[in-house]
Amino acid sequence: MKRILTIQDISCFGKCSLTIALPILSAMGIETVILPTALLSTHTMFKGFTCKDLSDQLIPITDHWKREGITFDAIYTGYLGTEAEIDTVTGIINAFRNENTIVFVDPVMGDNGRLYTGFNEHYAEKNAGLCAIADIIDPNITEAAFLTGIPYREEYTEAYARELLTALAALGTKTPILTGVSLTEGKTGAMGYDADADVFFGYQNDRIQASYHGTGDIFSSVLAGAFVLGIERENALRLAADFTARTIAETMKRAEDPRYGVAFEAAIPSLIHLLKEA
Ligand code: PXL
Predict the structure, then answer these.
(1) Cα–Cα distance between 215 and 248 in angstroms, integer?
(2) Which of 23, 116, 199, 224 could potentially form a cystine with 76 if both were Cys, beta carbons 3.0 to 4.6 Å apart?
């Protein structure tokens, strides 16, 4: 069985980060080791959330793993609350990676042209340093704009997506993947770039007009899992995009507060089905 380490916060309520990555990667048949960076009452879209920084635990925990000889096929990082945490996580990646480890970084920091609460441009610069050492990154357009300094655009063409991807590759990563790319009316999906081969690739499916917190974490978890399982990149994009769309469709049936998150649990049987086809 493949073993992945995922490093992100635990938000107790409001499904995101580890409360999405752990069940999804486990459902994909991957042993999922967690390194929680912080403990929050909810994610940061709620007012008045509590946050206990667990940064001082990261090195003692991973030092223990080293002493036990524990290794990982992949390391997947998501939301990291502070610049100091990015430094610590960079050290952990360097300590555990070998030539076969897949390092997958989702540089979670914003959406819709704006950074999330608690982040600024200096943080984005720091995050670009983490992206530089990753094999695969999957920012949305907002995050890609902050990482590269290219202005964010609400309306764009494929040329803009290619410009962002080329600039992301210039940071140092070999396979940037841009999420939430809508190239035609009524469609949305993802576009990637293989910097070594100088080849772009992508997948578009039908756009569902709804926006829920946590869909980025669902997409990333499935995509990271698909790469760990050795699924070919176009199929990996399709799997992540199609499953994310199904989770959104399930959520729409339920009419809950969009901050509560996506009803991905109801779609897990279809993830296993889609995985068999991928
Ligand atoms: O879904 C990304 C995410 C993860 N973790 C926390 C967040 C967010 C986005 O806002 O606040 C704590």
Answers:
(1) 8
(2) 224
Report, as ranges of residue numbers, the positions in the chain whose pLDDT lies below 70. none
Residue 181 Cα to ligand 1 middle (Å): 20
pLDDT of residue 212: 87
Q: Who's near 226: CB < 8 A, 6+ residues apart?
A: 28, 235, 236, 239, 240, 278
- Do strands 74-77 and 3-13 pair parallel, antiparallel, or not at all (unpaired)? parallel
| pLDDT score, position 211 | 81
Residue of the nearest CA to atom 12 in ligand 1? 43
Measured in Å, residue 106 CA sits from the centre of ligand 1 at 12
Length of the chain: 278
Residue 21: what pLDDT?
98
Residue range 247-275, pLDDT digits in tens: 999 999 998 899 999 999 999 999 999 99
Q: Which atom of ligand 1 is nearest to the CA of 38?
A: 12
Closest ligand 1 atom to 45 CA: 10
247's CB contacts (< 8 A; 6+ apart) are 215, 218, 262, 263, 264, 266, 267
Task: Kindly report the CATH number that applies to the domain delimited by 3-277.
Answer: 3.40.1190.20
Ligand 1 centroid distance, CA of 78 (Å) = 9
CB 132 within 8 A of CB 174: no
